Amino acid sequence: MSDEIFVRKNVRKILKDEKEKSELIKAFIRLKETGKYDRYVIWHAQTMGTMVQITGEDTRRNAAHWGPIFLPWHREFLHKFELDLGVALPYWDWTEDVLNPMASPIWRDDFMGGNGNPANDYVVFKGPFGSEQLKWPTIEANDYGNPVGNTELNANPNIPLSDYTNGSLTRFFTLCYLEPRCAGTGGVNPGLPKSIDVDNALATSPYDSSPWDDSSSQSQSFRMRLENRPHGGVHIWVGGHMLTNTSPNDPLFFLHHSNIDRIWVEWQNDISRRTEPQKWYPPHGTITFPDGSIIHGHNRNDHMTPWGTNGNNIEMVLNHHNLKYKYE
Ligand code: ZN
Ligand code: ZN
Questions:
Q1: Which architecture does CATH list for 6-327?
Q2: Measured between alpha carbons, how far is 61 from 296 in angstroms, rounded to an integer?
Q3: 281 CA to middle of ligand 1, Å?
Q4: What is the arithmetic mean of pLDDT over 205-224?
Q5: Distance from the CA of 42 to the center of ligand 1, in angstroms?
Q6: Quick one: pLDDT band at residue 191, thresholds 50, 70, 90?
Q7: Cα(323) to centroid of ligand 2, in Å?
Q8: CA distance 245 to 279
Q9: I want to staple 249 with a disulfide (CB 3.0 to 4.6 A). Which of 38, 241, 303, 308 is the partner?
Q10: Which of 162, 165, 147 is nearest to 43 (CA)?
Q11: What percent of the chain has pLDDT over 70?
Q12: Which ligand does the CA of 64 lie closest to?
């Protein structure tokens, strides 16, 4: 196990192999049964509740999103998850489904299941994660990332989460585009992101730029260009849990973020950057607020919330080969 390299494949390939497909699903269910899966959901919600701002700032920057740490944090998150899962995470290249997203093979009843039922609060019914199977009770969190009904979690991170898993997985394909809160996040084209969106991101340098948040210029920040439209666009298109701080409740989260990470690898492997890892992330100490003070948590040698020294720091995950996985 220790020398094993996880090979992350295109999910379409997994779907053609009955054995690989069922092993992946079984691994998800197994991790859910141990209670470890829900820990990941809560970790994600906790980072979203950890805002990283100074007084007077109006940004969405938190401990894992809308700032330079977005890509390293999700890389570490997936890496930890993959080790617990014991199986390589496939990636969902959604550009292959642009023409007819609803018909994507990933929505098959024996895989991710499909859309939620509008007559039942958009709950997903079919599939291994659907409510008919009773194997996938979801966990909800408040704005601070605490499981709803549990205010003790931050004080004691080892409290079992099983008492708080009582929801059902939801999705509402395309509907968020009809809501005001999704305006400006790709509403001009309410489809899945296209190849051109990915190509535009891949052509963007440097990695990120001041003010290091959700207002960084799309033409001056690869991170912003990827995080906003391709990344956010998929969360918005799928809807339901994917729109919330507990988005990892949907197993699709991991297939989507595997693809986002793959695009980052591709960007890092560009001929102009391959031999210059200093281009992969700004030097430590250079990510600062407008007043010049350090933005703690987003700088290159910083450890990440909520793992601290129980996980890698940003610098250690910049080269994904260190984490023993690769993309096929
Ligand atoms: Zn996230
Ligand atoms: Zn995401």
A1: Orthogonal Bundle (1.10)
A2: 12
A3: 19
A4: 97
A5: 11
A6: confident
A7: 20
A8: 30
A9: 241
A10: 147
A11: 93
A12: 1
